């Protein structure tokens, strides 16, 4: 039995080590943020994933909103943000979609430039600058390659978990490892959100919008979340109140440049 345990441990370590080596070997600097990332997907693959996933994601939120006037408004603001930001230098194909869902307040971006905002959120915005704040944040996710980055990180943690499962005969050990990996991935999500806020402020200023209106967006989101919102530690999104402080710092920084 001891021999079999050693073999299991050796195989488990090999699986985990392979996952770590593969992850570390993919290190590269993001030309749009200057941040070192470990991403195995090419920009072309990101674009393909986004285009393939876009119809399904739109369907989940009631399809596209039928009013072409509102859609044109979203397009115009999104395209202006891209035109005057570093996003215009990227290979990504930015498309902006107003979704028909009138109940779920949400905005999100797929890899490669597919950006979505629900009518429920759009209808709560009070001016074009606030819309620019929402779209600028989502453009930041694309430029930051956050989806591709997370896919790579999940591949790493999955490889390590597989190694632990193979090498350990203890179910509790595997469960603890899975819990730790989940917390780590959630932290990555919060960092991505804060970076996108920062980039969104930069894009707004470059396009001539008032970045202070992103703070107003955070207040709208805070109000919409209600008193029973999920604590920040258990969420991939930072609490809007905590994001406001970082947004204010970004505004002060970019306005002095």
Index terms:
257 residues, mainly alpha, 7% strand, two-stranded antiparallel sheet, 5 strands, globular, 9 helices
| End-to-end C-alpha gap | 66 Å
Radius of gyration over all CA atoms, rounded: 21 Å
Helix/strand order: HEEHHEEEHHHHHH
Instruction: Give the count of helical stretches.
Output: 9
Structural class, from helix and strand content? Answer: mainly alpha
Helix percent reads 55-70%
For the biggest sheet, the summary is:
3 strands, mixed
Sequence stretches where pLDDT stays below 50 over 5 or more residues: 229-234
In what order do the strands lie side by side in the largest sheet? 3-5-4
Tell me the number of strands: 5
Write down the overall geometry.
globular
Oligomer: single chain
Strand content: 5-15%
Give the overall pLDDT as a whole number.
81
Protein name: M48 family metalloprotease
GO molecular function: metallopeptidase activity
Organism: Joostella atrarenae
InterPro entries: Mito/Outer_Membr_Metalloprot (IPR051156), Peptidase_M48 (IPR001915)
């Amino acid at each position: 039995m001891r021999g079999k345990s050693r073999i299991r441990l050796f195989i488990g370590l090999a699986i985990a080590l392979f996952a770590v080596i593969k992850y570390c070997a993919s290190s590269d600097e993001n030309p749009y943020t200057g941040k070192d990332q470990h991403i195995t997907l090419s920009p072309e693959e990101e674009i393909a994933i986004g285009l393939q996933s876009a119809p399904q994601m739109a369907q989940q939120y009631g399809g596209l909103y039928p009013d072409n006037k509102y859609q044109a408004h979203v397009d115009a603001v999104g395209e202006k943000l891209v035109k005057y930001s570093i996003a215009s230098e990227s290979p990504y194909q930015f498309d902006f979609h107003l979704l028909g869902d009138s109940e779920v307040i949400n905005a999100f971006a797929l890899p490669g430039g597919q950006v979505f905002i629900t009518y429920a959120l759009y209808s709560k915005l009070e001016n074009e600058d606030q819309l620019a704040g929402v779209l600028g944040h989502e453009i930041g996710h694309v430029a930051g390659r956050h989806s591709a980055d997370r896919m790579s990180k999940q591949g790493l943690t999955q490889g390590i978990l597989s190694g632990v499962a193979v090498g350990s005969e203890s179910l509790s050990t595997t469960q603890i490892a899975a819990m730790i990996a989940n917390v780590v991935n959630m932290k990555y999500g919060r960092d991505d959100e804060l970076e996108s806020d920062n980039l969104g402020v930069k894009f707004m200023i470059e396009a001539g919008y008032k970045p202070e209106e992103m703070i107003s967006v955070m207040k709208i989101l805070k109000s919409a979340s209600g008193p029973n919102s999920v604590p920040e530690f258990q969420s991939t999104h930072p609490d809007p109140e905590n994001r406001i402080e970082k947004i204010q710092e970004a505004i002060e920084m970019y306005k002095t440049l």
